[in-house]
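Blinded run. Sample ID left blank on purpose so nobody reads anything into the name before looking at the predicted structure. Input follows.
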Amino acid sequence: MGAPYVAARGGTRVASREAAIEKDVRRLLARELHDRVAQTLTGMLVDVENFKSQPVAWDDVITQLDTIQSSTRQVLTNLRQLLHDLRGEEQLGDNLVGALGSLITRFEAKTHISAVLDIKPGWPEVLTPPASANLYRIVEEALRNVGMHSGAHMVRVVLEPVSDEELGLMVGDDGRGVDTDPARPLGLGTVGMKERALFLGGKLRIESKVGLGTEVRAVFPKVHLIAEEFPTVQTKTG
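Blinded prediction complete.
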């Protein structure tokens, strides 16, 4: 009886691990689809509904169609990148600063909100690909929330060293502020940002006051982000 019992117990452990992996994959897919697809589609629907309620000329129709076309391309790009990621192919690589610069340019063009990328001296020039990808998605989600909910005129994205051992990320706007009551259920986007921060060994919090804007702040152990044997940024950009 001993051998069958051991085999059965081992099979139970394997099944348990497989169930845990499957659960993690479902959570990953839900988070990625929300961040990369659902939010963009929601924004498109809001834009279309707002457009329908306004008196417009033909030039306005063409401009709106261009915006919808651009957003559709972005959704397709995000889906393709998600498929690459699921296959283990990394497209963002370690070029976080360049990717964030492009993201901010698109954000300004779409929302007409002034945006600044500020890289403080001491920020690593090269991060590991997983760190770059997760930091990028955190900023992307934070900017999406600014564009959709804040009523802001300006937003800053700051990457900076916090100490010799820690690196920090901040996305701050001058909008109307949000409800940060801990009793209030978190949206999927906020949950996704917090999960990404935890994946990198960090912590993320949202600070906001009515009428005084919102700041998304995250701090990470440098060892979880930095690629070994690469220098740090010596000059400020943005």
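Unblinding after everyone has recorded impressions. The longest helix spans residues 2-52.
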